[in-house]
Amino acid sequence: ENLDALLVAAAPGSSALALAPQATTPYDTLVELGRDASHPGCIFVLLGGAHGFDGEDDVDSSHQEAIRSRFVSALGSDHVAIINLGLTE
Questions:
Q1: Which of 35, 32, 21, 39 is nearest to 80 (CA)?
Q2: Whole-angstrom Cα distance, residue 46 to residue 20?
Q3: Cα separation of 4 and 86, whole Å?
Q4: What is the rounded distance in angstroms from the CA atom of residue 71 to the CA atom of residue 77?
Q5: SS3 call for 54
Q6: Strand partners, 84
Q7: Under a CB-based contact definition with an 8 Å cutoff, are residues 67 and 46 in contact?
């Protein structure tokens, strides 16, 4: 409920960035895609704790997916990115 209230109040053009170890998109790709983009709204940064978003190492990704789905519903899929901060090869 609190997350939904926060998202309802989000400024137009807001985006969300989720940092997740199992994400397939590397940070470098995000930098390239956003180089010429403008983001007039708020940027939400979603960072799970030392043991993931669910406190159990995200073995079951349903909790993380539920959070992501709420952001996608509120902001649009083109305003939500899930990236991996690991080194690129």
A1: 39
A2: 9
A3: 30
A4: 8
A5: coil
A6: 26
A7: yes
- Output the pTM of the full model: 0.74
| 5 residue type, one letter | A
Residue 89: pLDDT above 60? Answer: no
Please count the CA atoms within 13 angstroms of the CA of 65 that sit on its side-chain side.
5
Residue 81 clears pLDDT 80, i.e. is over it: yes
Per the DSSP assignment, residues forming a β-bridge with 46 are 18
Strands 43-47 and 80-84: unpaired
Burial 24-37 (b: 16+ CB within 10 A, else e): eebbeebeeeeeee
Q: Would you call 81 helix, strand, or coil by DSSP?
A: strand
Question: pLDDT at position 50, please?
Answer: 67
> Between vectors from CA 39 to CA 35 and to CA 40, what angle results, nearest 5°?
150
What sign does the CA torsion over 15, 27, 50, 60 have?
Answer: positive
| 72 contacts 60 by C-beta, under 8 angstroms | no
